[in-house]
What does this fold into?
Amino acid sequence: MSISTTRRSMSLAIAAAGLALCASTFAAAPAPAGTYKIDAAHSVAYFEVGHLGGVSRFMARFNDISGDLVVDAAPEKSRIKVDVRTDSIDTKHEGLDKHLKSPDFFNAVQFPTMSFASTAVTLNAAGEGSVAGNLNLHGVTKPVTFRLRHVGTGKGMKGEQRVGYVATATIKRTDFGMGYGVPGAATDEVDLRINIEAIKQ
It folds into this structure.
């Protein structure tokens, strides 16, 4: 092996070690144990579906989200409860918002809140895991498991302790009695994403 080849190999090894060190350095620190309240100003729930049977991807958000987290040093003892007001849906299109709030879809008058309550939480040292629980949507309650990622931990502007998580899952809306326009108007499969920032109480 030539000297130049050896030097290149050593450089690559050093670079790989550096990347590994950076990855471990920027991994989210464990969240301090305690009870946290969701900060509605910095949290949001999204959903995404295929439009017109999958011609494109359509996304909307809910602006009113609340709930609580119980963070434990043993992740399996942690808990989460999230409530979302269905009439807070926001597509940036008034007519579409009105239709989605109607009995064709979320039926926001009869079912003003959708909620998720955890039954089991797993989280590894890298801050990745899952949260299983019961999703209540459109008057139907079914078990759903979200992929869970701990984003970060830190202090707010007033010194308050904050934590951040992202939870994602895919459900079928027909499982919750929302069969309007399947699949022509919108796909049955719906991708869910909840971005949570919470404040320690």
